[in-house]
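Lecture notes, continued. The same structure-token format from the folding unit now serves as the input rather than the output. Read the line below as a description of shape only.
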């Protein structure tokens, strides 16, 4: 099969007062680990809800492995597992019963029970299978939520902010789990507000902003395209100091105690000249750190520029 994992074609969504999606078109390739990012109110959840068949598009279409989510919804739903943000469950079932029941809703029988046990093991829930869900901690419920979306072994998995509010250890477990799923051939779509998470995990990034796809790019290319580098200088004043020269002052992003943070344009602002300028003003440089821009820096820059240049709409 050569169909993309998910194909969005001119997807539109209008609510009474909001144009939440303004014609979004792109493909998520089979087998990739895709990061869907965007500021609050950008339209990510709306796009996911339409893909999952929970909301109807006002225009355009979405297909999962070539199956239209409206006209061929059974096959589309079978191919897709969506891990939602909230767990809706019947508190009287045990974890294992609930997962088996969920598999039943998806049209699967006992053939997936070994897979359910494997999920429990890989999500470190193996000793919780017999517990009722209401006895579980928040972090364990989160893992059950993931298992629930995967009971039918969907080829395409969407994770909607899977690590919001979870501790570092569980975050690591979930990262490894999703990586392993991806390595086993599942396409992963991740939405997250933790940009370092997207930077760590994703092959390709899409950024939605005000209902439009603003960026669709390989992560490496996106990180490489950003023409900045950050320089932090730890200073100690020796006797009299003067104001920094203009060519240094205009690069200053922040002063934190004895540390000066600067943002240098690659190929235009040179570290040697900055250091000379700082020394010339009477400072001793105790330590130097340089850092390439992170996805977070790029995200802020791209989404801020858009706000300032073309759109003054305020998002939630
Ligand atoms: N049921 C609804 N009725 C009316 N407007 C809605 C509804 N759901 C979402 N919206 C609006 O549509 C826009 C997109 O919202 P959406 O929840 O898809 O954004 P998001 O990118 O998922 O944001 P967040 O990161 O905050 O979850 C927002 O302006 C939101 O207020």
């Amino acid at each position: 099969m050569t169909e993309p994992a998910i194909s969005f074609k001119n997807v539109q969504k209008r609510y009474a007062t909001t144009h939440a999606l303004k014609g979004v078109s792109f493909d998520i390739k089979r087998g990739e680990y895709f990061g869907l990012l965007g500021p609050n109110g950008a339209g990510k959840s709306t796009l996911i809800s339409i893909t999952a068949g929970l909301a109807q598009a006002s225009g355009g279409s979405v297909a999962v492995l070539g199956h239209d989510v409206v006209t061929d919804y059974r096959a589309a739903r079978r191919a897709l597992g969506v891990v939602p943000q909230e767990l809706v469950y019947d508190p009287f079932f045990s974890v294992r019963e609930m997962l088996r029941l969920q598999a039943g809703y998806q049209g699967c029988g006992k053939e997936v029970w070994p897979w359910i046990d494997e999920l429990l093991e890989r999500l470190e829930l193996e000793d919780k299978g017999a517990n009722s869900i209401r006895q579980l901690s928040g972090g364990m419920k989160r893992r059950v939520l993931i298992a629930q979306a995967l009971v039918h072994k969907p080829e395409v998995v969407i994770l909607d902010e899977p690590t919001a509010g979870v501790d570092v250890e569980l975050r690591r477990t979930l990262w490894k789990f999703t990586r392993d799923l991806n390595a086993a051939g599942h396409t992963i779509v991740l939405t997250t507000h933790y940009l370092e998470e997207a930077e760590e995990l994703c092959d390709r990034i899409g950024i939605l902003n005000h209902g439009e796809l603003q960026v669709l790019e390989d992560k490496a290319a996106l990180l490489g395209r950003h023409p900045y580098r950050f320089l932090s200088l730890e200073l100690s004043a020796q006797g009299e100091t003067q104001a920094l020269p203009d060519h240094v002052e205009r690069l200053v992003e922040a002063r934190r105690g004895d540390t000066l943070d600067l943002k240098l344009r690659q190929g235009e602002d040179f570290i040697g000249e900055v250091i000379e300028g700082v020394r010339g003003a009477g400072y001793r440089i105790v330590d130097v750190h340089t850092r390439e821009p992170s996805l977070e820096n790029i995200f802020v820059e791209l989404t801020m520029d858009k706000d300032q240049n073309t759109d003054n709409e305020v998002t939630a």
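Point for the exam: Residues 168-183 form the longest helix (16 residues).
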